[in-house]
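We modelled each protein-ligand pair independently. The example shown here corresponds to the guanosine-5'-triphosphate entry; the chain sequence is given first, followed by the ligand as SMILES.
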Amino acid sequence: MSLYPLVKFLTSAAEAHQLAPDVGREVAFAGRSNSGKSTAINAITQRSGLARVSRTPGRTQLINFFELSPERRLVDLPGYGYAKVPEAVKIRWLALLEHYFNLRASLAGLVLIVDSRRGLGAQDAVMLEWVLARDRAAHVLLTKADKLNRRDGLRVLRETQAACSDTPVTVQLFSALKKQGIEAARATMDGWLSVP
Ligand SMILES: Nc1nc2c(ncn2[C@@H]2O[C@H](COP(=O)(O)OP(=O)(O)OP(=O)(O)O)[C@@H](O)[C@H]2O)c(=O)[nH]1
Ligand SMILES: [Mg+2]
């Protein structure tokens, strides 16, 4: 049986000392503000109300931890790239993210959420560099694929795969709305979390 529907909220962290205990394994979700991180977590866990989804970018300002089992977690990281956030707040978020990636022993892999209409951006590339530098796995979900026709979806997929071609990063199309790519995303996460 899948672990994902058993998920429950664990804790939120605004500062480094509030992170959940660094035990077992966890999969983190990062991406631009409004790229669909919270929506992807809800789709993968089949729990529509779990992570808060908002039309207002910058909604997830905390690191939110969700527990699948006592030593398995999903982590919703604060989105970056939202222009209206004050500079001082942005710097604090980035410092918290960098702290998280540098010190988190239980981080098994990163699911990088990228809006398929925008493609990989500079800050997305920084996230990939951080996790690859620490020998962690990374998988890109090109979200909101329902907003592209088939041809454009495949083009973005190929371009993103080409951009990651000299790394172990894997890429797929994803749509929470159309329930596209959910099984593939789970299969990748199962491997990282060592779910039999
Ligand atoms: N059409 C479509 N819309 C989506 C999809 N995924 C997310 N959205 C919409 O995109 C918006 C942002 O989604 P969120 O999941 O809140 O994005 P987020 O990355 O968690 O945003 P922050 O927490 O602000 O960083 C919402 O209006 C969602 O309904 C998708 O697969 N298809
Ligand atoms: Mg969110």
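The first strand starts at residue 8 and ends at 13.
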